[in-house]
């Protein structure tokens, strides 16, 4: 009972927003979401049950084909492969697109990218699986873009350590119900989320679960 009460309290705290809410959606495992966010708007992504990897991309809304999230710049400018609170998501043109203003979990992966049907078949021998690459492609198409505009993404609530010998793989995440990541748009951005449906590795605890997405202005 105590654990359930604590989880409810964490979820209530995560959903407490001071400002004008523009979008509030629950995404089941495998669903996607996208929205044009104006400069200064905030995005909160809440893990509702814990250990749910969430794939994210952002693009400069004015120049989406030339000024997109860039993993290399984000890592270099943070001097860290695992961004922390206060770090920014940078673009191809070395401009900040979004700032991580709050991260209650502390596990953000910039390395592993997203799952795809082809990668799942190659790695796990399963065909035609739901996947984040397909979700991102649908998001892109809704903004007049295409699969060619897809870039390597960032993963929230995801534990992808690189060990001393260079070995790297997803490991169990530590997020719990109510953990969240909050980002602020530093320019008008196209934000995209794929709530990862991966069942073949620990990036979503082998049992993908829902997330909640809230957009607001303070």
Provide structural commentary.
This protein is of the alpha+beta class and 218 residues long. The protein has one domain (2-217). 18% of the residues lie in helices and 29% in strands. It has helices at residues 2-14, 71-78, 117-124, 132-142; strands spanning 20-27, 32-37, 42-47, 54-60, 88-90, 96-103, 108-109, 154-156, 180-185, 189-195, 211-217. The strands form two sheets. It has a six-stranded antiparallel β-sheet. A hairpin with a 5-residue loop joins strand 5 (88-90) and strand 6 (96-103). The longest helix has 13 residues, at 2-14. The chain is globular. The model has no long low-confidence stretch (mean pLDDT 96).
Number of domains: 1
Classify the helix fraction into a percent range. 10-25%
* Number of extended strands: 11
Mean pLDDT: 96
The value of Rg in angstroms is 16 Å
Major sheet: size, sense and barrel closure? Answer: 6 strands, antiparallel
Structural class: alpha+beta
Strand content: 25-35%
Q: How many angstroms separate the termini?
A: 35 Å
Number of discrete helical segments: 4
- Described by the principal axes of the CA atoms, the overall outline is globular
Give the topology string: H per helix, E per strand.
Answer: HEEEEHEEEHHEEEE
In which order are the strands of the major sheet placed? 1-11-3-9-6-5
Spans where pLDDT lies below 50 across 5 or more residues: none
């Amino acid at each position: 009972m105590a654990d359930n009460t604590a989880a409810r309290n964490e979820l209530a705290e995560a959903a407490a927003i001071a400002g004008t809410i523009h979008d509030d959606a629950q995404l089941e495992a495998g669903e996607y979401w996208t929205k044009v966010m104006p400069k200064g708007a905030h995005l909160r992504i809440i893990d509702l049950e814990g250990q749910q990897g969430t794939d994210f991309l952002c693009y400069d809304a004015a120049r989406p084909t030339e000024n997109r999230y860039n993993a290399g710049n984000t890592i270099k400018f943070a001097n860290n492969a695992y961004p922390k609170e206060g770090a920014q998501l940078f673009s191809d043109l070395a401009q900040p697109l979004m700032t991580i203003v709050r991260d209650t979990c502390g596990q953000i992966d910039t390395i592993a990218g997203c799952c795809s049907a082809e990668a799942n078949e190659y790695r796990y021998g399963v065909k035609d699986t739901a996947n984040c690459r397909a979700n991102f492609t649908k998001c892109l198409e809704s903004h007049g873009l295409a699969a060619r505009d897809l870039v390597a993404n960032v993963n929230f609530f995801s534990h992808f350590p690189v060990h001393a010998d260079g070995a790297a793989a997803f490991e169990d995440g530590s997020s719990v119900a109510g953990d969240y990541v909050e980002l602020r748009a530093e320019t008008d951005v196209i934000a995209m989320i794929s709530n990862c449906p991966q069942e073949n590795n620990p990036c979503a605890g082998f049992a993908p679960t829902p997330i909640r997405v809230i957009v607001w202005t303070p």
